């Protein structure tokens, strides 16, 4: 039952926009679960392709041109297999705290977003510090934090000529940090204080939910870390996330 203000008997007001957004989020969540199933199904045929192609390569007298083609089939199937394993790992709801390598996580997410960057013709640069200690946290949550920040940067660079830089570095005592810089349009001073607010978005419905940075900031703070942003109109945006090595 609804009254004239659209108030449900439960008391919460649900506007048409909010309802649309919730319906969209729910659809994406369901699609995500179905996709995880599909990806899982891909595992078996991919391992058949990998092992069959390796058996063919071990045969004697296979013409060179066939060997070349089979090697390509094998390496592409191995690449897909890595991707599906990564996807399954990432989509799991396990809460496992372990010693996580920040650089490997950055590599995983950049690999994962390779296509999103390529289709916007964004050049991706990395400057990783390989002497960093591992950090003790839930690796899937770290992936989600990186995904949100980097995806926002890519979405800000739709115009072409985009450049994305991801750096890792030691922070102050017992912390590590990563820095994501884009050369997109920047964030106006009027809105920069609101970007971490729940439902704040400047994107079209269906593109943005306004939840990404809200969730990201909450996750970072729940790990005892900190997120900072600096931006200049026309000069791009930089997000810096600092995380303690031990929580
Ligand atoms: N790298 C960026 N460059 C420009 N604007 C950004 C950037 N990252 C975030 N924003 C702004 O912050 C808003 C909120 O981001 P977010 O919480 O992830 O929600 P969404 O991506 O769904 O809009 C975005 O709509 C955008 O206006
Ligand atoms: Mg976002």
Q: Would you give an account of this structure?
A:
The chain is of the alpha+beta class and 247 residues long. The protein has two domains: 16-91, Helix Hairpins; 97-244, 2-Layer Sandwich (Heat Shock Protein 90). The protein has seven helices and seven strands; from the N terminus they run ααβααββαββααββ. The strands form two sheets. The protein has a five-stranded mixed sheet with strand order 2-4-5-7-6, with helices on one face. Strands 1-3 form a two-stranded antiparallel sheet. Helix 1 (16-58) packs antiparallel against helix 2 and helix 3 packs across helix 5 (139-156). The longest helix is centred in the first third of the chain and has 43 residues, at 16-58. The radius of gyration is 22 Å and the shape is globular. The structure holds adenosine-5'-diphosphate (ADP) and magnesium ion (MG). The site of adenosine-5'-diphosphate (ADP) has 20 residues, from helix 5 and helix 7.
């Amino acid at each position: 039952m609804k009254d004239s203000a659209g108030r449900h008997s439960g008391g919460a007001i649900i506007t048409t926009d909010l309802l649309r957004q919730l319906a969209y989020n729910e659809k994406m969540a369901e699609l995500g679960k179905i996709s995880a199933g599909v990806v899982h199904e891909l595992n078996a045929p991919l391992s058949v392709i990998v092992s069959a192609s390796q058996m063919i390569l071990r045969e004697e007298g296979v013409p060179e041109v066939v060997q070349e083609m089979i090697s390509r089939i094998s390496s592409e199937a191995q690449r897909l297999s890595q991707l599906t394993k990564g996807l399954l790992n990432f989509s799991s709801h396990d809460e496992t705290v372990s010693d996580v390598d920040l650089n490997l996580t950055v590599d995983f997410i950049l690999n994962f977003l390779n296509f999103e960057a390529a289709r916007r013709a964004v050049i991706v640069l990395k400057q990783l510090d390989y002497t960093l200690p591992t950090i003790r946290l839930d690796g899937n949550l770290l992936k989600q934090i990186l995904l949100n920040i980097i995806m926002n940067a890519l979405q800000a660079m739709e115009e072409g000529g985009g450049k994305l830089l991801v750096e890792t570095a030691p922070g102050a005592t017992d912390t590590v940090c990563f820095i994501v810089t884009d050369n997109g349009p920047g964030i106006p001073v009027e809105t920069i204080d609101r970007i971490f607010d729940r439902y704040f978005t400047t994107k079209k419905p269906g593109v943005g939910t306004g939840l990404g940075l809200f969730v990201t900031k909450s996750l970072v703070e729940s790990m005892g870390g900190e997120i900072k942003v600096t931006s200049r109109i026309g000069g791009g945006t930089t997000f810096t996330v600092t995380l303690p090595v031990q929580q």
